[in-house]
UniProtKB/TrEMBL annotation:
<dbReference type="Pfam" id="PF01132">
    <property type="entry name" value="EFP"/>
</dbReference>
<keyword id="KW-0251">Elongation factor</keyword>
<protein>
    <recommendedName>
        <fullName>Elongation factor P</fullName>
    </recommendedName>
</protein>
<dbReference type="InterPro" id="IPR012340">
    <property type="entry name" value="NA-bd_OB-fold"/>
</dbReference>
<keyword id="KW-0963">Cytoplasm</keyword>
<dbReference type="InterPro" id="IPR013185">
    <property type="entry name" value="Transl_elong_KOW-like"/>
</dbReference>
<comment type="pathway">
    <text>Protein biosynthesis; polypeptide chain elongation.</text>
</comment>
<keyword id="KW-0648">Protein biosynthesis</keyword>
<dbReference type="InterPro" id="IPR020599">
    <property type="entry name" value="Transl_elong_fac_P/YeiP"/>
</dbReference>
<dbReference type="Pfam" id="PF09285">
    <property type="entry name" value="Elong-fact-P_C"/>
</dbReference>
<feature type="domain" description="Translation elongation factor P/YeiP central">
    <location>
        <begin position="67"/>
        <end position="122"/>
    </location>
</feature>
<dbReference type="InterPro" id="IPR008991">
    <property type="entry name" value="Translation_prot_SH3-like_sf"/>
</dbReference>
<comment type="function">
    <text>Involved in peptide bond synthesis. Stimulates efficient translation and peptide-bond synthesis on native or reconstituted 70S ribosomes in vitro. Probably functions indirectly by altering the affinity of the ribosome for aminoacyl-tRNA, thus increasing their reactivity as acceptors for peptidyl transferase.</text>
</comment>
<feature type="domain" description="Elongation factor P C-terminal">
    <location>
        <begin position="130"/>
        <end position="185"/>
    </location>
</feature>
<dbReference type="InterPro" id="IPR013852">
    <property type="entry name" value="Transl_elong_P/YeiP_CS"/>
</dbReference>
<dbReference type="InterPro" id="IPR001059">
    <property type="entry name" value="Transl_elong_P/YeiP_cen"/>
</dbReference>
<dbReference type="InterPro" id="IPR015365">
    <property type="entry name" value="Elong-fact-P_C"/>
</dbReference>
Length: 188
């Protein structure tokens, strides 16, 4: 058993007969009244995100997890297949267990949290940024650079990301996985 002072991003807890992963939290100490923790919880079974507030000192039932490095192999339409880097065992997960499946290319190394009680995968954590090649984008309009103008670009995984006007097809770009936003162009 843990309490609200143990809450952190990525912590898996049992709540309402389901297992949730904390994706956001904020400790609040108002001038009047008791302190509390405002959280965003994501169900690891359905992918649904809910808001919840825990009062300070509230007991929470945390789930013991182990993290392992896995390599993304392929997607067969319904399942995403991964291979454990340590013992080469393979697992498959539904797309609902993944946060940004559209930014994952074959060979990508991800961290998978596994419940130690039943050895079931709980969630997949992507690296903070990924480098992908732009496969299609319209040419930028010359003279339209007074503001931070962007245009949509399709990357090699099929995801669409808004990029600055100077990005062309064939450029490699760094993308932040948590927001799915353009970060910078990679010079080769």
């Amino acid at each position: 058993m843990a309490n609200t002072s143990d809450i952190r991003n990525g912590l898996c807890i049992k709540y309402n007969n389901d297992i949730y992963k904390i994706i956001e939290f904020l400790h609040v100490k108002p001038g009047k009244g008791p302190a509390f923790v405002r959280t965003k919880l994501k169900s690891v079974t359905t992918g649904k995100v809910i808001d919840n507030t825990f009062s300070a000192g509230h007991k929470i039932d945390d789930v013991r997890v182990e993290t392992h490095k896995f390599q993304y192999l392929y997607n067969d339409g319904e399942f995403y297949h991964f291979m454990n880097e340590a013992d080469y065992t393979q697992i498959r997960l539904l797309e609902s267990a993944l946060d940004r499946a559209d930014l994952m290319k074959e060979g990508e190394i991800v961290t998978i949290q596994i419940n130690t009680e039943d050895n079931m995968p709980l969630s997949v954590d992507m690296p903070a940024t990924v480098i992908l090649e732009v496969t299609h984008t319209e040419p930028g309009v010359k003279g339209n650079t007074a503001t931070n103008a962007t245009k949509p670009a399709t990357v090699e995984t099929g995801a669409i990301v808004n990029v600055p006007l100077f990005i062309n097809e064939g450029d490699k770009i760094k993308i932040e996985t948590d927001k799915g936003t353009y970060k910078e162009r990679i010079k080769e």
